[in-house]
Design brief:
With 158 residues, the protein is an all-alpha fold. The chain folds into 2 domains: 14-62, no CATH class; 64-158, no CATH class. It is 73% helix and 0% strand. The protein has 6 helices and no strands. The chain has helices at residues 13-32, 36-61, 69-85, 91-113, 119-138, 140-148. Helix 1 (13-32) runs antiparallel to helix 2 and helix 3 packs antiparallel against helix 4 (91-113). The relative contact order is 0.10.
Length: 158
């Protein structure tokens, strides 16, 4: 018989529903109290939680150690930043473009890297991440563009 895992515990529905209600009400309460800081912090927490969840899927369930994981977030962020710099502030339009840009890069990276196994997979994902990093840093048009992007407003949903 196996020892119980620390993560094996029943979900306490009343507490889970209470926390869900608090988190859903947070943006409206923060706006009513004119506390935009908390909305910014909560947004960043959710963005990094999404990245951590996707890394958990790849590493935890897939068993693939990927060092190029942050490149997908970077490509999506660049796509949204460039679109917002061009005047497109609709999140309903910029999010799909960010997902598509990251998916195209992931598809190209996946076609090549999924043919490898073990340490070779780790090294090729690291190589793709470093290639993207040096591409963004080295080429002056991309670097100057990223240093000049100043988002003057937040994205609107509709």
């Amino acid at each position: 018989m196996m020892a119980p895992n620390a993560l094996d515990h029943p979900l306490r529905w009343p507490w889970a529903l209470l926390w869900l209600c608090v988190l859903v009400a947070l943006p409206w309460v923060a706006l009513a109290l004119d506390e935009g800081f908390y909305i910014t912090v909560a947004s960043r927490v959710l963005i990094f939680a999404l990245a951590a969840t996707s890394l958990n899927l790849v590493l935890g369930f897939g068993g693939m150690v990927s060092f190029g994981h942050a490149a997908f977030m970077g490509i999506g962020a660049y796509a949204v930043g460039i679109l917002m710099d061009a005047g497109l502030t609709s999140a309903a339009l910029s999010w799909p473009v960010a997902v598509l840009a990251a998916a195209v890069f992931a598809g190209v990276m996946g076609v090549i890297s999924l043919r490898t196994q073990g340490v070779y997979f780790i090294m090729i994902t690291l190589a793709f991440a470093q290639m993207l990093y040096y591409f963004m840093v080295s080429f002056s048009s991309v670097r100057l563009k990223s240093e000049q992007i100043q988002l003057l407003s937040a994205a609107c949903i509709f």
